[in-house]
Amino acid sequence: MQRFLFVSLLGALSTAPSAQAIILYGQGNNATTSDPGTGAPFGNVARMTNNNGSLTYASAVYLGNGWVLSARHAGVPNYVQFDVGGALYSRDQTADVVTFGNSDLIMTRLQQNPGLPSLNLYRNGTFVEKSGTVVGWGIGRSTGSALESDTVAWGGDSTATKRWGLNAFEGALSYTDGNGRTTESFVTIAGNSDVLVEPPQYSPNSFQGGYEAVAAHKDSGSAYFTQEFGTWYLSGITLAVETPEGGGQVTEFGVDYANDENRGFINVYADLAEYADGIDAVVNPGGTIPEPASGALAFGLAALGALGFRQRRRS
After folding, report:
1. pLDDT digits (tens, 9 = 90+) for 147-167
2. Residue 11 — very low, low, confident or very high, per pLDDT cuts 50/70/90?
3. 22: left (phi over 0), alpha (psi -120 to 50) or beta
4. What is the pLDDT of residues 173-191, one digit of tens each?
5. Distance CA 310, CA 178 (A)
6. Burial level of 158, CB count in 10 A (0-12/13-18/19+)?
7. Distances from the Cα of 65 to the Cα of 41, 142, 163, 232, angstroms
8. How far is CA 174 from CA 6, 128, 270, 303, in A?
């Protein structure tokens, strides 16, 4: 039985600015560095950086009313930047750092208002067969790696920048990371021809979808947006990605989920439908809190005997 390793996406600190992000199956590193023009809140995704913007640690998402959300294992977002070369925004040191039980989510408030719109949180539990737009600041593919290749080597820190890509919900699980934190989550798969609604203006019509995305280092805390009846929602926060057993910084795209040897790598996202009430209580104190979301699609992960991590099936 094949074993898989999930790793957090927080990359090692670099001595040079990083501008890389998610890796696309059939596109190069410069293909999706601007707003896709679909209405997805591309501008709300920031990179976590230092006080002079010379490093990229991870990604974060602006929710509204000054608050940003990220992955807890990536640390506290003390400084964020929403655009390449743009203004730096610092954390309000007088505001609480908010966590949600033992989950891998963290929120902080910015001292300055970035002037961005507030986001809607998805609350309908599952979004089966719904494509999502992923936006993050992680690393890209290595120089010279072939497009539409089943195995793509990760690039270095110099390849990191803000990018978007596409993927689709595959199932839900309770994900426990190496720090012992358990987060109600969902997964996507790199490849598997699972991007069902890829916009034709973006697609090179390859079998796996040229804009299909997989996360890489520094994408922790990045956004997974979905659209429903014309409204965009923040549905997930990137937590982890599967890597090869035995190590190696590569991404594998696959087309046949039933065959482990030909299945793309799994990406794990916090399922924000499970945390929306708590998040809203922080962002909009005193506001009306909708009823909790209900229901979640079970996803069989018995084969994922992760090294140093545990997954259990959600019912």
Report:
1. 888 888 999 888 889 999 988
2. very low
3. beta
4. 899 998 899 999 998 888 7
5. 8
6. middle
7. 16, 38, 25, 18
8. 13, 17, 9, 15
pTM of the predicted model over 0.85: no
Distance from chain centroid for Cα 297? 20
- The whole-number pLDDT of residue 104 equals 97
Beta carbons within 8 Å of 74's beta carbon, 6+ residues apart? 8, 9, 10, 48, 57, 58, 59, 106, 220, 221
- Between CA 108 and CA 95 the distance in angstroms is 7
Cβ contact 21:232 at 8 Å? no
141, 249 in Cβ contact below 8 A? no
Please name the helix (run of DSSP H) or strand (run of DSSP E) that holds residue 24, with its range, or none. Answer: strand 23-24
Q: Which of 40, 9, 44 is nearest to 221 (CA)?
A: 9
- Write b or e for each residue in 259-282: b if 16 or more Cβ atoms lie within 10 A of its Cβ, otherwise e: eeeebbbbbbbbbbbbbbebbbeb
Q: Of 313, 306, 208, whose CA–CA distance to 1 is shortest? A: 306
Do residues 66 and 44 touch, judged by C-beta distance below 8 A? no
State how far the Cα of 100 lies from the Cα of 314, in Å rounded to an integer: 19
CATH number of 119-274+299-312: 2.40.10.10
Question: Smallest Cα–Cα separation from 58: which of 48, 73, 68?
Answer: 48
Residue 124 buriedness (CB in 10 A; 0-12 / 13-18 / 19+): middle
50 CB neighbour count, 10 Å cutoff: 13
Radius of gyration in angstroms for the set of CA atoms belonging to the chain, rounded to a whole number: 18
